[in-house]
Design brief:
Elements (H helix, E strand, L loop, with lengths): L1 H20 L5 E4 L2 H7 L6 E7 L3 E11 L7 E8 L14 E6 L13 H7 L2 E7 L5 E4 L1 H4 L9 E4 L3 H9 L6 H4 L4 H6 L1 H10 L8 E6 L19 E3 L3 H17 L8
Parallel strand pairs: 4-5, 5-6, 6-8
Antiparallel strand pairs: 1-7, 2-3, 2-9, 3-8, 3-10, 4-9
Helix pairs in contact: 5-9
Keywords: Signal
């Protein structure tokens, strides 16, 4: 009986622990063109600029969905996948940006904690929503109401499935095992490289994917060395890994039937 009771206590602690760290995603995926037009500003000229070692870059427009409290409109940091599946309570002071898939919530998601609040608590400066299988992510109307919910960070979203796939495919150019997902300890250990990259806009060594998310109103004030014309994606690279990614992008374009201009 004593062993049985001890096991129950362990199970209780495990379940409660998961409920504490897990969070719900206040957005849903959709292919409904009417909902997308009503909720995603497709004419938004906000941008995401990606950079990786050596000399790789990609830029396209995104939709600025939520304005974070005290936002400057320009957010820079290491770009990593962030999910309620593998949350820990570890935090970092090294700037990072959360890449969040809106496709599903886990069975242990807490209805009280949203993914953006938990990301901010762990040091995130911004977030980008995307879908792996749908055209767009729609923020829940209730959550979008700033009178009812605090918005701790700027939240942007991709405008289409082809755009999402291109952005996620760029992770093929880095060591995803080490630098693809949120890991507070590794971010802290990479602080010097990350801070140097953010200060110079040059990635000095093999490490993270880096992102700059800029709200449309701040485009003219961006200090990035990359530029964008209209909503046409642009990219450049001098690495062999990026040449492989180039091939992947071409395949994606054929599969999706999307028209994307790629500059090699």
């Amino acid at each position: 009986m004593r062993i049985f009771m001890f096991s129950l206590c362990q199970l209780f602690i495990l379940v409660i622990g998961n409920l504490v760290v897990n969070a719900y995603i206040p957005a849903v995926p959709t292919n409904d063109s009417a909902k997308i037009s009503a909720s995603v500003n497709l004419s938004d000229l906000s941008t995401i600029q990606l950079a990786w070692y050596p000399q790789g870059s990609y830029e396209t427009t995104v939709s600025h969905q939520l304005v974070g409290s005290g936002s400057s409109g320009v957010n820079k940091g290491a770009f990593v996948h962030f999910s309620e599946n593998n949350l820990t309570t570890d935090t970092t002071t090294t700037p990072w940006i959360a890449l969040v898939a809106c496709d599903f919530n886990t069975s242990t998601s807490s209805p009280e904690n949203d993914i953006f609040t938990l990301a901010r608590a762990r040091g995130a400066v911004s977030a980008l929503l995307y879908s792996e299988w749908s055209e767009a992510c729609i923020i829940n109307p209730e959550y979008a109401n700033h009178k009812d919910f605090d918005h701790p960070i700027d939240v942007f979203s991709t405008k289409s499935l082809p755009s999402s796939r291109i952005i996620t495919s760029e992770f093929l150019t880095i060591n995803q095992t080490l630098f693809g997902d949120f890991n507070a300890e590794r971010l802290n250990g990479s602080a010097n490289v990350i801070n140097e990259t953010l200060a110079t806009n040059v990635v000095p060594s093999s490490s993270y994917m880096f992102a700059t998310l800029t709200a449309a109103a701040n485009i003219t004030n961006s200090t990035s060395t990359n530029t964008s014309t209209g909503s046409t994606p642009s990219r450049s690279s001098g690495s062999k890994a990026s040449m492989k990614t180039e091939f992947v992008l071409i395949v994606l374009q054929v599969i999706t039937g999307a028209t994307v201009v790629v500059f090699g």
